[in-house]
Amino acid sequence: MKRFASKGVFPHQFAFTLLIPLRNIFLSPKQLIKRLDLNDNMTVLEVGPGPGYFSPEIAAKLPKGSLYLADIQQEMLAYAKKRIDKKGIRNVSYYLCSGEKFDFADNIFDRIFMVTVIGEVENKKEYMQEFHRILKPEGILSISELAGDPDKLSIDEVKNIAEGNGFTYYKLYGNNKNYTVNFIKH
Asked: Which of 29, 55, 88, 150 keeps 20 to 30 A from 116, CA to CA?
């Protein structure tokens, strides 16, 4: 139980708790889709998808595009893949990341997003540098943090990390308890 409620990487053994529909009170997939301002042909990266709570609906909004899921836990990727395959969604790719570098080409993604993940990342600066490298010019980096997450960063902390690595603040949704901050790469 201590691992479940403590700081650090969320344990894959509790992945099922991330699929509870009560999460919609804080941020629903439909709300997130609006905040990401998606087009149907975009290439999108979700970092730290866990079991894929948001992933199926995001992928469905990209019928001519693609969604990449990147996680440091193979078990989380397998869980997400099982759920997505069961729904018959075929435009999703899975990437086990190292926690430092992303093996993607420069300027490939239209959107990069993460929900309750940035606080768990040990190498925040390196991640932001990689996001800046792999995001297309004028692409959006979207970071959401929700109440109850023991690793939650404040809006100002997220702004400092992103702006310190070449991103420009674009838009804020929500409030200090539950928010999404979007940044643009220029």
From this structure: 88
Q: How do beta strands 179-185 and 135-145 pair?
A: antiparallel
Which distant-in-sequence residues (6+ apart) come within 8 Å of 164 by Cβ?
Answer: 125, 128
pTM of the model: 0.89
SS3 167: strand
Chain-wide mean pLDDT for the chain? 90
Q: How many angstroms separate the CA atoms of 55 and 68, rounded? A: 9
Q: Which domains does the chain have, with CATH numbers?
A: 2-185 (3.40.50.150)
Return d(Cα 167, Cα 185) in angstroms, integer: 5
Residue 5 has pLDDT above 50, yes or no: no
- Residue 128's CB is within 10 A of a number of other CB atoms, namely 22
Rounded CA separation 160/181 (Å): 12
Beta strands in 97-165 (DSSP E): 109-115, 135-145
d(C-alpha 26, C-alpha 97), whole Å: 27
